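Query form — protein Nuclear transport factor 2 family protein

QUESTION: What is the three-dimensional structure of this chain?
INPUT:
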Amino acid sequence: MNKPARTAEAEAEAVLKANQAFYDAMETGDLAALEALWLSGPQAASVTTVHPGWPVLRGRDEVLRSYALIMANTEYIQFFLTDVEVGVAGDTALLSCTENILSSNPGEGDGTVGNLIGGLVVATNVFRRTPAGWRLWSHHGSPVMAGEDDEDDEDDE
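ANSWER: The structure tokens for Nuclear transport factor 2 family protein are given below.
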């Protein structure tokens, strides 16, 4: 007996859950959970990521190494996702969102958190359906630059 086809809403919800798991793994510094979310096997070489200000990174190993470096050098990070939109076409899903990020670098070595920094990044996450569920294929983050009003405020100081 064939399994019934999942509804478009159920597929979108599954992608949203996979996307949230990605950001949860980043927030908790759980590299093993993060690794489980990325495509592996024959498609591992086609995995890509672009962190804001970085060149494109290609291949699962290089991508995961970059996240390990970010996690090792970030004391605290929290993502508030807004403007989330997801579309599913067959075995591919495209999710776009705005990452409202609050982060800090390590403090003085005494267990304290360094200065908190806020930022905005627009992100596109591409997922592929696998037998194990939706897996990240590509992540691209671009910083949102300060608007003209922000620049005018700096001139007044």
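ADDITIONAL NOTE: The chain has four helices and six strands.
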